[in-house]
Please model this.
Amino acid sequence: MTVVVLLGAPGAGKGTQAPVLARALEVPVLASGDLLRAAVAAGTQLGREADRFMSRGQLVPDETIVRVFLDRLEKPDAREGAILDGFPRTRVQAEALDRALAEAGRTVDRTIFIDVQTEDLIKRMANRRICTANGHVYNLASNPPLNDEVCDIDGSPIVQRPDDNELTVRARMSEQLPPLLDVVDYYRQQGILQTVDGREPIADVSARMLRALGVAPGQVSV
Ligand code: AMP
Model:
């Protein structure tokens, strides 16, 4: 049973690195942003509520995301553990996660903070694209798809997220960085935080993260 929390500002590389770690540990990725985007696309009540916040770069209220995310964490595929991407994003969420795991006799095992400066993040996000089927992440400058228009993995169209425009990106930084740093502190105090420099090339960041999790380089093909 391994629960790993990936922490990082929007654009730090959580969505790129999460599948690498998931393959290595043989657990699923649970990405809060993907759950919310799926609800928006499906037009559910949750989607309509979440979209009001997402389109402004604000955090969805704790009460809503805690309910949705903890429900997802209880699904059978996460019984052996999971890589948590994008949750928790506030101290209230981190405490709710700890309580839910404790009830099941589980804990957060590791947290990795991918550290990148804000101005670098803003530049990166202008070039970020995701695929419409599964949210696979690309960057037109540093990690482009083989064909500009479709995903290498599932062939679905590649698009820019509506909240990746510069205005919303800046709003996301000012709204989301302070609570993120609070969560970083929360895990640092628990002694389960490791930090990696997210400015390095993708493969180097992956290697450092796998090392932080105690996975030997030969054990996986990334
Ligand atoms: P992401 O794909 O992780 O960048 O998330 C996209 C958007 O979904 C964020 O800008 C927030 O509006 C919302 N969101 C995702 N995860 C959370 C969370 N844990 N708490 C609150 N809002 C969230």
